[in-house]
Each structure stands twice: as structure tokens, then as C-alpha cells.
Amino acid sequence: MAEPSGVVARIYGNLARLLSGKAGAGVLSLVYMMIAARSLGRADYGVLILVHTYVMTVAGIIEFPGWHAVVRYGAETLKRGDAPRLTRLMVYAGGVELGCGALAVVAAAALAPLVGPQLGWPPDALAFALPYSLAGLATVRATPAGYLQLKGRFDLLGAHSLVAPLVRLGGAGVAAIAHAGLRGFLIAWLIAALSEWAAMWLLGAMVARGAHSRRHLADGLAGVPAENPGLWRFMWGANADVTLAELAGRLTPLAIGWLLGPAAAGLFAIAQRATTVIAQPAQLLGQAAYAELAHLVAGGGRGPGLRRVLGRAILTAVAAAAPVCLGLAVFGDKIAVLIGGAGFAAAGGIMAWLALGRTIQLAAPPISAALTALGRPGLSVWANTVAALAVVLMLPALVQGLGLVGAGVQALLQAILVVGLLAAALGQATRTPPVTPHRAEA
Predict the structure, then answer these.
(1) pTM for the complete prediction?
(2) Is the pLDDT of residue 107 over 70?
């Protein structure tokens, strides 16, 4: 069994490679946000955010990413040297993911004329919402991403993080210089989303070349569920977990736009982007940890050893984020003005709440990754479901009663609730008998 300290070191090695790209992406995103916010103003910038968030929310609900299955079952195939089985698994998972992605694009286009007016979209945004639904494809790239994780190519995952920000930055510059207005920025964001989607599949194909061939598919894909016992139950559980974990965060800007209007959504977007410096490492830590935890569990590691690995990883992440959280709380208004201009100063008031919630929630992705690696995604789904439902039900009252600050309070409450529930679920999962792959929990 791998030593916990060695696993933690590999997790943070993976995280460092991911962050190498995300650090650059974070700087680029601040620059293109400054260009967009200053060019469009609060209301139109809010519309840009609402159109994009709407499409990503619909896509996030319908999408069926396959990366958890590729990493979990793929770790077994690598251990056994069974390349044909891994080939069939990837093609199967990728086909399911692409099919659901196409359905998400159709659903987003069909619902846009009904939802858009409620969110305060002007006619130009409503007209472009139909083609913009193609941006939902940006979420349909989990299967190749899972393969890159499985193969340890976190350097390529980090490089991929730069694709969308670079395209957005270039597009934002062109739109600003050409005075293209809201429509010009929507076009730039759409091109960036499609580039992000295409680039990941190309990277996955590049790494897979030579190790996998069409000969591995000679017997078809019908037997994939049988040679990966519990595959569908595992995929349903893992994907429900991802959807529910992200649902509240995606619904919050839409609720603000619905109740307070696009300008308020623009203010929230500035505050949210500023605190992403904490949130992104949290998601990346879950990605970086999952492959190592899957290998650890495949080798028989669980119980106290697994809990020690997670404890060290989470404490390191929280310690690193604490100074950033404090800085955002103290200088939030100045940061908001720096990003969006004087018209966005009010965004500073919500930054402290969001930053604290983001810091607490650093623990959630690694714990969810551990539960999934243990074959118990159902426990993570349960924790995220309870937390998401609770805060979504509270959100309208909090926003109406406290304005934008209500969204910050909601984020803090959700973080406390979900981390507490996940920790309890992990304690249960590591004290019960191992769940074998053929009995993996949904």
C-alpha cells in the first residue's frame, strides 16, 4: 500500500501541474473581465453573464460526463494491462457524453425564448441565445479529461485551461475596439466555448494515439457494462453528485438576475470572479486527488490511511487560501473597482461572504473524490443533494431580504452544510466493509 505522505505529494504534484495553467488562465480571465465590464457597463455585462450561465446550467443538468468512470475503472485496466477494455470503456463513455451534450444544446435553445425575458435579456441577447446554446458543448469534454488524468498528463490539463481564456481575451479585445456591444462579446464567448470543447478532445486523441486502436472495438460496445460491473449505477451516482454539487452555484446568478435584474447579476459576477482564486484550486484539488485516490483504493488503501491523506491535503489547501480570503474581505471594494470600474464598487460588500464560503468549501471536492474512489458516490450525492436543496430553497428569501449580501450568506451556509455532511459520509464509508466494483453503489 502506498504511504499517505507519498500519495499527498503526488496529489499536490498533480495540482501544481494543473495550477500552472490555471494561474495563467486566472490572470487572463481578470483581464478579459475588465475589458467586458468596462465596455458594457453593469446591465449589459450582467446580461452577458446571465446568457452564459443559463446555457451552462442547462448543459450541467443534462450532461453525462464520463471521467469518473474512465478513471475508476481505467485504473483497474491499467493495473491489469488490459488496453482493449479501456478503449471500449472510453468510446462507450464518450458516446454517452456526446449524445447528452447534443440533447443539452437542443434543450437550451428551446427554453431560451421562455427564460430570457424573465432574466431581463434585451432583444439582441434573445435573438443570439439560440446559436449561443452551442456553448453548452464546452461541458462535453469529461471523457478525454478523465483519460488524461488516468495517464498522469496533468500538464496537458493545465495547458488546456488556457484555451478558453486566451480566445475570450482576444475576442473581448476585438469586440471592444470594434464597439461591437453585447452581441460582439457573446460571439467571443461562444467561440471560446467551442474552442475549449474541441481542444480537449484533440488532446485526448493525441495521448491515446498508439495505445488504443480500432481493433479493440471489433466486438462492439454492447459488452462494456458487463466487463465493467456496476458501471451504470456508478455513472449515475457520480454524475448526479457533480450536477447537484454545482447546481446551487449555477442557479445563484440566475436567481439574482430574476429577482434583482441584470445589473445586480453583473455585480455578483465581479465578486464571484474575484473569489474564484480560492474556488478554482478547490475543484482542481478534487481532480488532482481523484486519480491518486482511485489508485490507492485499488491497492487496498482505505480507513485511517485514506483519512490521513485527505486531512493533510485539505489542511494544506485551507492554510494557503486563508491569506487570500482575508485580503478579499478587507479590500473587496477596491478590488471590485479595479476589475470593473467605479460602477462596480458595490460588489465589494459581498466578497467577504463569498471568500469565506469558498475557503470552507475547499474541503468538499477532495472528500467527494474519495467517496467516489471508494465506490460510494451515492453518499456524496446524498450530502450534495441535501445541501443544494436546502440553500436553493432559502435563496429567494435571502436575496429578497438582504439583496446581494443574501447570496453571500447563502454561499457560506451551503459550504458549512455540505462539508459537514460529506465529512460524516466519509466517516461512514471508511468504517464499513469495502465496496467491490461489481457492487459499486449508485
Answers:
(1) 0.74
(2) yes
